[in-house]
Amino acid sequence: MARENPGRYSRQELVVGKEGQGRLQKARVAIIGLGALGSVAAELLARAGVGHLTLIDRDIVELSNLQRQLLYAEADIGKPKAEAAHSRLKAINGTVHYGSLVADINHKNIGKILEDEGLVLDCTDNLYARFLINDWAKKRGRPWIYSAAIREQGSVMLLAPGMPCFRCTFREAQGLDTCDTAGISNAISTAIASLQVNEAIRYLTREKRLAKESDSQCLIRLDISSLSLAKIKTKKNPQCPACSGQYEYLGGKKEPRHISYQCSDTYQFFIDNLDLASCEKKWKRLGTVRKGKNYLFFKNLSVFSNGRVLIKAKSLGQANAILSRYAGM
Ligand SMILES: [Zn+2]
């Protein structure tokens, strides 16, 4: 580990103060998803001197990631992102403690994975994961920060105990666009990751003051195509299940992936409310979609109008990644 140098954070201390810097160096932050958002957020937090960073991702580095995922280089292609990120971050700031995990979070493992974390950054590009993190955070009284970016727009929201939660604010949906289906500019992903890190540092260094500020309860939206930034006030939804103690995602009731069999490298899932028309629309932008009366074929995916999805993959993890990438689930 590199030697602590008192000058290392001198410029930052002029902004957050010595006390704030001390709080950062005692903080423990988990980053779930080390793609366009997570790789930038992890690097900024490592450079800022956060005490412990836990790096979680299920994927490997691919050539198409390098346009925006700043922690990786060509030599990392084929390596798990969590491991490639870990070695790069250690080289950037060896005084930070790191943990890395190649894993797909689900309702069974989230409690164990996040048990010791003081703040969680959602960089998952996955709606199910966000509702799951929300349930866990509500139940355990932990803060987390949502982030999302697609094409030229993005959002960030701090969700701390006592504030309106993610489920108060967002509806459940299936088959949303993802970066892989709709595209993403590297300017928006780095801008959104920066805003997310700003929220994290504000929260970690000035927690008590921030908790009293009503203006901290807002959704931040940035659109770089029109250069507009908006702060949208959020409010509690009296019908929100999570706020009334019903943790449907954490309890596994909302698990979107029901595997009924696995053979010859094919994995089967059932997805509620699967919309073939919207799948066809977004996949057409990416390649050839073959269409039947009740089904679509695209790359290694076959989807049926009754919600059945077949994916050719080498492992369940790869099948889950394909489902997330092309179907946003
Ligand atoms: Zn709520």
Would you write up a description of this structure?
This protein is α/β, with parallel strands linked by helices. The protein folds into two domains: 10-244, 3-Layer(aba) Sandwich (Rossmann fold), CATH 3.40.50.720; 262-327. The chain has helices at residues 10-26, 36-48, 81-92, 110-114, 127-140, 166-169, 179-182, 186-205, 207-212, 276-284, 316-327; strands at residues 28-32, 52-57, 97-102, 119-122, 144-150, 153-159, 218-223, 228-233, 262-263, 266-270, 289-291, 295-298, 301-304, 308-312. It has an eight-stranded mixed beta sheet, with helices on both faces. α2 packs across α8 (186-205). Residues 165, 167-168, 237, 240, 242-243 line the site of zinc ion.
Descriptive key words:
329 residues; alpha/beta; Rossmann fold; eight-stranded mixed β-sheet; six-stranded antiparallel β-sheet; 14 strands; binds zinc ion
Instruction: Please report the first level of CATH classification, the CATH class of the largest domain.
Output: Alpha Beta
The chain-level structural class is alpha/beta
- Supply the number of helical segments: 11
State the major sheet: 8 strands, mixed
- What does the average pLDDT come to? 89
| CATH level-four homologous superfamily name of the largest domain | NAD(P)-binding Rossmann-like Domain
Series of secondary-structure elements, N-terminal to C-terminal:
HEHEHEHEHEEHHHHEEEEHEEEEH
Number of domains: 2
Q: Please give the order of strands in the largest beta sheet.
A: 3-2-1-4-5-6-7-8
- In terms of DSSP E residues, the strand content is 15-25%
